[in-house]
Amino acid sequence: MIRILIADDHHVVRRGLVFFLKTQKDIEIVGEAKNGEEAVKLAQELNPDLILMDLVMPVMDGIKATKLIKNKHPEIEIMMLTSFSDQDHVIPAIEAGAAGYQLKDIEPDELVRSIRKLLDGENSLHPKATTHLLSRISRSHQPPHLVHELTKREREVLVELSKGKSNKEIASSLYITEKTVKTHISNIFAKLEVSDRTQAALYAVKHGLVTGE
Predict the structure, then answer these.
(1) Which residues are reported to carry the modification 4-aspartylphosphate (predicted)?
(2) Which of 16, 48, 96, 194 fits a 20 to 30 Å CA distance from 73?
(3) Residue (of 156, 111, 140, 148) closest to 199 by Cα position
(4) Cβ contacts of 190 within 8 Å, gap of 6 or more
(5) Going edge to edge, which strands form the sheet with 2-7?
């Protein structure tokens, strides 16, 4: 079961999410929070697999709550579910530790797919969020030497990962097993000093292994 905590200050939004997500056989709603402060408290008490986090909330916003939760519980995945798609909201949310970013106008079925993809270790970013991140990374300055730590096969896996492919798809493309793909990805994260697929993909774009198109 995927155990989900919903954090949103609007009762109607929470009810709508609960109503739909409860129809999924592999999803359990373990709690609801009206603001970031409640989300932090419930994350500690309930230890959910994933939190659907609104950005703008009273008492404590979603970005501050995400930072606090990820500092104490890095294993909890956080997906921002918001109405804001501008870089002033996207960038701070990802930097705070959110691994997913979707807009509230997302179709319910697509939201469920995004949740499952995120917990499967795949990218779960709205296209506008991806665009802002690529723009930000293209202007940043990172030492390129870490790329040279990768083996040829690890670079190949990184390129495929950066295209948004799942472990199964990467394995098929490179004619290796999914277990081998997971090992390579673990090594890539360690060598590039990143913690998730999104950061690894952005690093690959920054250093010219793949294009940002």
Answers:
(1) 54
(2) 16
(3) 140
(4) none
(5) 27-33, 2-7, 50-53, 77-82, 100-103, 124-125
Per-residue pLDDT tens digits for 9-41: 999 999 999 999 999 999 999 999 999 999 999
Q: Which pLDDT tens digit goes with each residue over 54-106? A: 999 999 999 999 999 999 998 999 999 988 877 777 888 888 888 888 989 88
Q: What is the pTM of this model?
A: 0.65
Map tokens 């081998």 to a residue.
Answer: 180
- In the chain the domains, ranked by start, together with CATH numbers, are 2-136 (3.40.50.2300), 142-206 (1.10.10.10)
Q: Cα-flanking dihedrals φ and ψ of residue 30, to 5°?
A: -95, -15
What length is written for the chain?
Answer: 213
Q: Is 97 helix (H, G, I), strand (E, B) or coil?
A: coil
Q: Residue 103: phi, psi to the nearest 5?
A: -95, 155
Residue 157 has pLDDT above 50, yes or no: yes
